[in-house]
């Protein structure tokens, strides 16, 4: 209960602070950079205040080499040539292996199946760009038939950033980010050096990749973008371009949305037009999507459930569990609290054969 009270106070304080400082007005190279930066910065502050673990891995554990193959590079070159498609999907590279031996994106692949009579293309970031402790690019074989890996853009941006950092434009960006960092550290009394360093890299990615993505979207001309929405830079820049080209953006819900979480869906000024937030949401249900502080029209929210879980429910409907299962679903920054709770409950039930405790780790915890 103490944790929740602290979070409530901090959430309101953070939203009021960023609004008061007019961070949403800061624009660099056509990007309102605060929309990308704010979520992870808030999470780091929240972790500090509540003595929680970091959402991000220890940089000392990062592999020196990332997986790269000719097949992956060849596939990622499609970004320069792919043409007219009906729908563009932005998935999550954190795939799950199914009984057919293929790796599924449990959020987007079943929607692609529903649109099998249409031309669909899926963009997928390398997994190592999402999970910093992993060297894996993609989990193969993938379920998705028409897929374009984005590894080549990561490589291009890495090279271009070397030259970009020698320019006055970079100095301007760096000074602005340092100024924001100093103001937030002064206000919230915590060290945010690492997260601001990461944020700067993500902003640079957006700036240096925009032309590539914009040319691709102009060639693809999708009727809509359907996405696993988070504040990953490739998604933010594509959303920005989609808004410029009047392409509707549809979020496929991937987690429970509370009154305060995730921050990338929560804003104080609901009348403001934001560059990157989706236009529509395909939601699990009203109880799993708290729309407080969400600047998305309620008429643009459709309650569709989870296609993946609905399919699994049908698949397992005839299986009767031998015990009553208690499931804990972990989250990196809350892992200490959740694991301690699970451990204490396990001790209480150690002599009771009626119950079985299942602890599902967050993929970030496994690398």
Question: Can you tell me about this structure?
Answer:
- The structure is a single chain.
- By secondary structure, the chain is α/β, with parallel strands linked by helices.
- It has helices at residues 2-20, 34-49, 70-76, 109-114, 127-130, 151-164, 168-188, 193-220, 233-244, 307-315, 335-348, 363-366, and strands at 27-28, 31-32, 87-90, 96-97, 103-104, 120-124, 147-149, 224-227, 249-252, 280-283, 301-303, 324-329, 355-360.
- The strands form 4 sheets. A 7-stranded parallel β-sheet has the order 7-6-3-8-9-10-11.
- Strand 8 (224-227), helix 9 (233-244) and strand 9 (249-252) form a beta-alpha-beta unit.
- Helix 6 (151-164) packs across helix 8 (193-220).
- The two termini are 30 Å apart.
């Amino acid at each position: 209960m103490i944790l929740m009270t602290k979070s409530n106070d901090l959430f309101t304080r953070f939203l009021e602070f960023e609004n008061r400082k007019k961070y949403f007005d800061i624009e660099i190279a056509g990007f309102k950079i605060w929309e990308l930066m704010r979520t992870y910065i808030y999470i780091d502050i929240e972790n500090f205040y509540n003595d929680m673990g970091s959402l991000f891995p220890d940089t000392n554990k990062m592999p020196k080499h990332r997986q790269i193959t000719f097949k992956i590079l060849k596939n990622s070159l499609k970004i320069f040539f792919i043409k007219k498609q009906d729908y563009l999907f932005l998935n999550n590279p954190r795939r799950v292996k199914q009984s057919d031996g293929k790796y599924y994106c449990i959020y987007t692949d079943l929607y692609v199946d529903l649109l099998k009579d249409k031309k669909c293309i899926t963009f997928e970031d390398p997994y190592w760009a999402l999970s910093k402790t992993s060297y894996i690019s993609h989990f193969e074989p993938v379920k998705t038939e028409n897929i374009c890996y984005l590894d080549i853009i990561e490589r291009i941006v890495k090279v271009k950033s070397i030259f970009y950092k020698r320019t006055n434009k970079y100095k301007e960006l760096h000074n602005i980010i340092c100024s924001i960092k100093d103001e937030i550290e002064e206000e919230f009394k915590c060290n945010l050096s690492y997260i601001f360093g990461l944020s700067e890299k993500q902003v640079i990615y957006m700036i240096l990749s925009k032309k590539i993505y914009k040319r691709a979207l102009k060639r693809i001309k999708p009727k809509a973008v359907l996405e696993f929405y988070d504040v990953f830079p490739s998604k933010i820049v594509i959303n920005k371009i989609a808004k410029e080209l009047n392409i509707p953006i549809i979020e496929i819900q991937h987690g429970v949305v509370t009154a305060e979480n995730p921050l990338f869906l929560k804003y104080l000024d609901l009348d403001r037009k934001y560059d990157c937030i989706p236009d529509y949401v395909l939601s699990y249900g009203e109880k799993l999507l708290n729309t407080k502080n969400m600047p998305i029209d309620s008429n643009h929210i459709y309650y569709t459930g989870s296609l993946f879980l609905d399919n699994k429910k049908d698949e397992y409907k005839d299986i009767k569990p031998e015990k009553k299962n208690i499931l804990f679903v972990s989250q990196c920054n809350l892992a200490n609290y959740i694991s301690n709770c699970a451990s204490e409950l396990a001790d209480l039930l150690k002599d009771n054969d009626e119950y079985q405790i299942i602890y599902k780790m967050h993929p970030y915890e496994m690398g």
